[in-house]
Amino acid sequence: MARHAAPSTSRRSALLKAGLTVTAAGAALVGAGAGAQAAAPVPLPLDGLTRTDTGAAGTGALDGVGYALGPLTQLKLNPLADTGVDPLDNGVGTQVADFKPLGTNLVTDHVTKGGAVADLPVVGPLSQGLLP
């Protein structure tokens, strides 16, 4: 007999109703707690807001962002670099007549050999100048 054609049992429907009741009660309690918390007024010191040095606040915020993002320049761009399963470690090269061979490894070696953002040719010095 297929599952949808099986007779429904009263035990299963009773468990379903109990679960829905517990869920609804929990949602009501959480909603009531959030509403009570949002209804409480928060006193603000208005005299302290007028004496804020916005230049110092902006400088502090930018310094904080710089120091937070600074270590990211030393992270490896490719976590699979220098492993046997690196899908990016492939290159295409060609040589025409007796000219020097030319390939894509010149561009992709920074990523496939485990380089970081600071090691990239153009972006590296730029990121070192902008971030501490």
UniProtKB/TrEMBL annotation:
It comes from the Bacteria. InterPro entries: TAT_signal. Keywords: Signal. Residues 1-27 form the signal peptide. This is ATP-binding protein. It comes from Streptomyces cinereoruber. The lineage of its organism: Bacteria, Bacillati, Actinomycetota, Actinomycetes, Kitasatosporales.
